[in-house]
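Before the break, one more example. Copy the sequence into your notebook; we will annotate it together after we see the structure.
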Amino acid sequence: MAEFPDPTSTPTPQNTQEPSGSSSAQNSPAAKGSEQSAAPNSTPGSPEATPPKASDAGTGAKPPTPAKVPMTAQRRSPAAEESPWMEALKTIGISVVLATGIRTTIAEARYIPSESMLPTLEVNDRLIIEKISYHFDNPNRGDIIVFSPTDRLREDNPSLKDAFIKRVIGLPGDSVQVSNGQVFINNEPLEENYIPAEFAPDYEWGPETISPNSYLVLGDNRNNSYDSHFWGYVPKGNIIGRAVLRFWPIDRMGTIGPLPIYLEDTAAPESTDPADPSPEAAN
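Here is what the structure looks like once it is written out:
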């Protein structure tokens, strides 16, 4: 914006008299060149070549140049500032995406709805199911796995969607038989220290050879479990993951392994080293 002079102020007198020899200087090539360089687009007698007005000359001041505001000093307008609600929605959205990704590819929580895995797992136990290891390795005998319903299960109950949790007993190619309260693998009795005597099977099944890339699974509560001895094998593609940790209830928190969680009376081994104290003397 240009500055306008105060109408009440008296303009400063300007010396309009040309110095001697000015006419010759104006006609000199140097003067013409300087005049053209000062106003390259003006021609004599044109409006652009009109001398400045007295009011402009009286002030002697140029229009002020607007000051540049540093970027750090510029403030964001209220419209540009993000709403706290929008920030909260973004945070929630990111959390949901991360949680979904973890649940889909790494691990998830499950709870036990039935008594089919007693005494190892009780109703309402909360477990962590890891999903990574079976991408690089096959299930081992004794693993407790979670799997989606097989085709045979869906045929029997089309609305069935809930996952199952059982223990791997037979591996691909194994010959499995259940007889006289004992599981036999390839005609050899399977040692199952995680099942007390009252949970031993009272049914007869097999022998059968497990199909390739499939697994025979049984519940630890053998006589109260809807498992492979009813509906067949579990394809590896149906396996969701392996139970690795119980995090609820607190008093039963811990990893899930092949060792039994129930108390079992066992005789103390006899010492063969004379230097060892006898069991009676040990405190």
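The longest helix spans residues 84-105. Residues 1-49, 263-283 have pLDDT under 50 and may be disordered. Try to locate both features in your own notes.
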